Amino acid sequence: MENSLNIYNFSVDHAKKFGLEEAIMIFNLKFWIEKNAANRVNIHNNNVWTYNSARAFSELFPFWSRHKISRVLESLEKQNVLVTGNFNKSGYDRTKWYAFAEPASFCKFATSILQICNMHFADSQHPFCESATPIPDSKPNSKPNNKPVIKKVVAKKMPPIKNGILHQAIIKKYDEYVKKRTGVSAKITVADAVAVKKIKIYLLQQCADNPEIALSSWGLILDNLKFCEKFFSNNFQLTALNKNLVQIIDQIKNATNHSNNTAQQQRSNALDAFEF
């Protein structure tokens, strides 16, 4: 006789709010959705999805009947926890797809992280952005406009970045920024190297441990640093950037939130994933 121990986890807070059975289902879906996000698969409509047939769900939850599983999933839909879709390649395939209605409330990544992906990789064949659409350029207004215009980051194809070399990639992008701004290379001190390590950890936490998106987000921050208060834009040493990173992101968001330009607002939304 085969001995096996299957452990089913759940969040107590979710159980209190949505029900015990629903909390168990949430935990399972959360695992697969975060895995898909990390692997850059099943990305549609600016959300990360997972799918399972009724038979597969029955194997995952052998103590529930198919009717019970359907009831739990329908309950989560009614409580606005889940949304459903059909992204099957075959038209006759009725397998349901599931995603969280508010991903940031349940997963480590946030929907706006996907919007960052859309901005930076819209023109590429990057699998994480297979459904992305480019952000249109805004047409100049005939009337004077003193509102800040956030720079559009042009998508560039680049080889995959390994987590281990992200530290050097962040320094390289910073050096390029300093050269463009001052005409000379950046001088990296020991304190700066420590600051880069902290910046890297923070960016990865906000970008579902995806080095490519983390680096692109870093570029977005540097390119739009000029729209922050002078105290922050003039103090662009790595130690200062690390210390003030939260305020800098907040100010970039606020600068675009006060604009009527759709592209600017989308760039502001792209930074909403960074939790303060």
Compact overview of the structure:
With about 280 residues, the protein is mostly helical. It has 2 domains: about 10-105, Orthogonal Bundle (Arc Repressor Mutant, subunit A); about 110-270, no CATH class. It contains 12 helices and 5 strands.
Total E-strand runs: 5
For the largest sheet, list the strands in their spatial order.
3-5-4
Helix count, DSSP H or I runs of 4 or more residues: 12
Main sheet: strands, sense, barrel: 3 strands, antiparallel
The residue ranges in which pLDDT falls below 50 over 5 or more consecutive positions are 110-117, 119-158, 262-268
Our measurement of the CA-to-CA distance between the termini, rounded to an integer number of angstroms, reads 52 Å
Domain count: the total is 2
| Percent helix range | 40-55%
Q: What value does the Rg take, in angstroms? A: 22 Å
How would the global form be characterised?
elongated
Order of helices and strands: HHEEEHHEEHHHHHHHH
Which class best fits the helix and strand makeup?
mainly alpha
- The fraction of residues in strands falls at 5-15%
Average per-residue pLDDT, rounded, comes to: 75
